[in-house]
Amino acid sequence: MQKNYIDDNAPLLEVRNLSCGYLNRNNYREVANGINLRLYRGEINGIIGEIGSGKTTLVRAIEGKIFRSSGDIFFRGESIFIKKNYFKFRKKRVVVKQDSMNALRPRYSVEFQIRKLFKGGKYNENELKRAFDLLNLDLEILNKLPVQLSDGTRHRVLIAMASLVKPEILIVDEPTAGLDIMAIRGMLKLFRELTQTTSIIMISSDIIPIFQVCDRVYVMREGQIIEDGKWSELLDKPHHPYVKDLLESMPSVRNRKKEFVENYNEIRTECVYSDKCRYIDERCRERIPYRFDGEHGYRCIKYPEWTDDSA
């Protein structure tokens, strides 16, 4: 019998030219457009963007829960939009959403729900203690009901539960929401340890944790990925003015006067930063293709020209 070998050099998950949105009866509202993303084994990829940029919509598309108008998503080289492949994919991925209350059953203890993950059997107590310790959780929480816990605590419990399961793909949406700085630090360390068995997609509007732990970073604005690359490349040499402004907006004393950038969450043909960019000219009003500088992707027609203007 022929065996199915896994190619470690191929993407574990690939989003290819995906456009998706929300279909209500006969009305379709497209939120994400032309998305391309690759996740390899053992990687942590980050997706950053403002609230309303389409990050959570992309997560729902990867889950296979919303309408796609074009493009595809591949798991181990097979489209998840084929029914038999989708069920295989569902068993190999875990999504930890920001709304933790709906993910936990309110009338059952945390420990009961952890045992349910293993069909009532025993879980690895040492791994649980390690996860709880890193996430700054007390073991007494195991005996409590979810309704007795804060939002931030429930969110950390879900991350700990996901770490016990060891899925091939873990998707975490806004994992730092409601967490203090020590819990965030421990969570990032846990994510890095999980890469021995798990590939992770981390979606956040919090820039600093993304650049602390992710191997590759994708930047979204108004439903488009406008730049992606290794975390160090984006920090050292951003190719899009929006990414430069985003990085300069990271908290520091010298950035206190930085203005907030609004996001209108509309699919547009021109550059999605054209209403704010100080380097704009008429070419930016046209459809902007996605270009590559080695493995560094970006959507700016004026790069590297704009970097000379900013000098």
Topology readout:
Layout: E1 13-24, E2 27-39, E3 44-48, H1 55-63, E4 67-75, E5 78-79, H2 83-92, E6 93-96, H3 110-117, H4 125-134, H5 151-165, E7 169-173, H6 181-194, E8 199-204, H7 207-213, E9 216-221, E10 224-230, H8 231-236, H9 241-248, E11 291-293, E12 296-298, H10 305-309
Parallel strand pairs: 3-8, 3-9, 6-7, 7-8
Antiparallel strand pairs: 1-2, 1-4, 4-5, 9-10, 10-12, 11-12
Helix pairs in contact: 4-5
Task: Tell me about this structure.
- It is built from ten helices and twelve strands.
- With 311 residues, the protein is α/β, with parallel strands linked by helices.
- Strand 4 and strand 5 (78-79) form a beta hairpin.
- It is globular.
- The model is unreliable at 253-265 (pLDDT under 50).
- The strands form two sheets. Strands 6-7-8-3-9-10-12-11 form an eight-stranded mixed sheet, with helices on both faces. Strands 2-1-4-5 form a four-stranded antiparallel sheet.
- It has helices at 55-63, 83-92, 110-117, 125-134, 151-165, 181-194, 207-213, 231-236, 241-248, 305-309; strands spanning 13-24, 27-39, 44-48, 67-75, 78-79, 93-96, 169-173, 199-204, 216-221, 224-230, 291-293, 296-298.
- Helix 4 packs antiparallel against helix 5 (151-165).
Q: How can the largest sheet be summarized?
A: 8 strands, mixed
Determine the number of helices (DSSP H or I, runs of at least 4 residues): 10
Extended strand count: 12
Strand content: 15-25%
Terminal CA distance reads: 63 Å
Gyration radius from CA atoms, angstroms: 20 Å
- Derived structural class: alpha/beta
Helix content: 25-40%
Shape descriptor reads globular
Arrangement of strands in the largest sheet: 6-7-8-3-9-10-12-11
Q: What do the pLDDT scores average to?
A: 87
User: What is the N-to-C succession of helices and strands?
Assistant: EEEHEEHEHHHEHEHEEHHEEH
Unreliable stretches covering 5 or more consecutive residues: 253-265
